[in-house]
Amino acid sequence: MIVDTAGHDPYCFVEFYEHRHATATIAAMNGRKILGKEVKVNWATTPTSQKKDTSSHFHVFVGDLSPEITTDDIKAAFAPFGKISDCRVVKDMATGKSKGYGFVSFFNKWDAENAIQQMGGQWLGGRQIRTNWATRKPAPKTTNETTNTKQLSFDEVVNQSSPSNCTVYCGGVTTGLTEQIMRQTFSPFGQIMEIRVFPDKGYSFVRFNSHEAAAHAIVSVNGTSIEGYVVKCYWGKETTDIVSPIQQFFFFFFFFKWRLGFLV
């Protein structure tokens, strides 16, 4: 947000990955009221200097990036595979820090395929990176349906389910879903007790040791990209925890004691 010291209204810039998404957003947001004030939305530059439309190009998702990796770093790493039309590391808007993934766009499909095959598992900085085809987000809707995807706060999420519910549903990864990927994604938010992965259905359940840890995970991961897919996270169905070996022992002990007593 940029505040004009001369007393004019504050303003900001929003950069989209695709030209068509920016066009749809202008149509949907221009003239709408935010916090009681009507906003004006328009192109930040003249049409001659607008960003090139890369919607017909071939986009590669690059994941597991080290925090220090920049757009120039991934561009240099992928440049040997062909002509790049666009490249960027995705950053958190609030902190300006890398989210740990980015995108590389190629003019030619063969170059993108070759990059995915050759760069997957290669070291970039201090980590082995993951590569896959990027999944494009749908264009912004022009109705009130957009409010369904608003970013929820921790207070909202933590009160959506009972305090005993510690299970997170994560869906939308239609290919390449593994327990390891889920563990890498969710382990920063707390101790994980159990992970159940359903690769053929594209979703998984992650059970934490606390309700608060699960809530933090939902707030942080919902709407982010995993393996190039934008995922949805919300509370999983609350179920009884898996019976521990000690619980099993006492169950069978008292069961057979009851049976023997019954037969005597």
Could you characterize the architecture of this molecule?
The chain is an alpha+beta fold and 264 residues long. It has 3 domains: 1-53, 2-Layer Sandwich (Alpha-Beta Plaits), CATH 3.30.70; 54-136, Alpha-Beta Plaits; 152-235, Alpha-Beta Plaits (2-Layer Sandwich). Helices cover 28% and strands 23% of the residues. It contains 7 helices and 14 strands. It has helices at residues 19-29, 71-78, 109-119, 154-158, 179-186, 211-221, 245-263; strands at residues 33-34, 37-38, 58-63, 84-91, 98-106, 123-124, 127-128, 130-133, 167-171, 192-198, 203-208, 225-226, 229-230, 232-235. A 4-stranded antiparallel sheet has the order 4-5-3-8, with helices on one face. The chain has a 4-stranded antiparallel sheet with strand order 10-11-9-14, with helices on one face. A two-stranded antiparallel ribbon has the order 1-2. A hairpin with a 4-residue loop joins β10 (192-198) and β11. The protein is globular and about 50 Å long. Mean pLDDT is 79; it is low at 46-50, 137-149 and 240-244.
Name the CATH class of the largest domain. Alpha Beta
In the residues, how many domains can be counted? 3
Tell me the strand percentage band.
15-25%
Uncertain regions spanning at least 5 consecutive residues: 46-50, 137-149, 240-244
Order of helices and strands: HEEEHEEHEEEHEHEEHEEEH
Main location: cytoplasm
GO molecular function, one term: RNA binding
InterPro entries: Nucleotide-bd_a/b_plait_sf, RBD_domain_sf, RRM_dom, RRM_euk-type
Subcellular location: Cytoplasm, Stress granule; Nucleus
